[in-house]
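Slide 14.
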Amino acid sequence: MSVPYHRLPRVDARWRWWRPLVALAFLVGYYIATQVVLGVAYFVPIGATQGAAGLTSFQDDLTSGALDPTDPLILSLTLLSLVVLLPGVLLAVKIARIGPAGILSSTRFRVRWRWTLWCLLPTIVIAIPMFLLQTWGMFSFDGGFGWDHDAIGQSTVSPATLTFTIVMVLVLVPFQGAAEEYVFRGFLVQTIASWIPVRVVGVVVAVAVSTVVFAAGHIANGYNVWGILDVGSFGLIAAIIVLRTGGMEATVLQHAFNNIMIFVLQAPGWSKIDLDSSNSTPESFVFSFATSLVFWGLIELLARWRKLDRRFPGQEAPCFRGPTPVWAEGRQWTRPGGTGWAVAPARGPETDRRTTVVGPSDAAPVDETVGVAPRS
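Slide 15: predicted structure.
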């Protein structure tokens, strides 16, 4: 017996349908609090140095929808507002007792770093055609290789600002990409798939909902129809890759590389190039979707070659009949207690489904015939 990525929360006998709602409520409150803190950290210094006019201008730039990579303040605040979601969602699953924080990382309840390094290969292979598409017509070979300033114009930012922006992108974007992946392809997929008893139905609904919500989240950024389809197709393939590999590693790399490339190429603010990346075209959508499919194929081949273990080598907790024992019911979920992940009982033909109501301090929660799922 083994458990796929999207059913990992059901390994713990204390899992209940309302726990993800507790995690979501915490995440929403945490996100609002962090946005207030970030707002104060940015708006107070701007108000002190630039006055009301500076505050108004900064707020207008933030609410315009389109992200300007040539403005380090706007870009850094936008990235940080997403980066904070990463520790937030990891903390949420711990507080709600859904499982260990690593439950969102992979079926090993951690980041599989060796597999991550292998995933760099297909990520770089896909990054090459994406770079060529993004830079098509931007280079000149007359008199040597260099920027075609007749086509793209001149940079509108200073060398110091450009250097700072590129360093900031390289540092923050990997965490921004990871945050989005952990929320949409991790928490959301596991929550929905665990709610629905029929596995096939659960995984289909989970992937569909996560894809639609992810794409809809970009509408506020001014994306046109093809841009939304582009984002949606990316989210769809990413969700499938997570389920097929049993972890976040490949999609986090793909997401980070894609965003880093876009922000770095737009950071100089070329005077003759429209920086609004939200206006996609049918051709760019088809190309993007095709590269996502190729990336998925390369990851599949790599996973088979490396014999990647994609499932948790344990079993889901049993469905209790009759009175549920206190240790599994989770009435004390706000405090340490219960067996949890360390000795989650196994489900199987040999499992004794008879249960005994015991006190919170009792040491023997189930009969000796109940199996134990191995640790990750």
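Speaker note: The CA atoms of residues 285 and 291 lie 10 Å apart.
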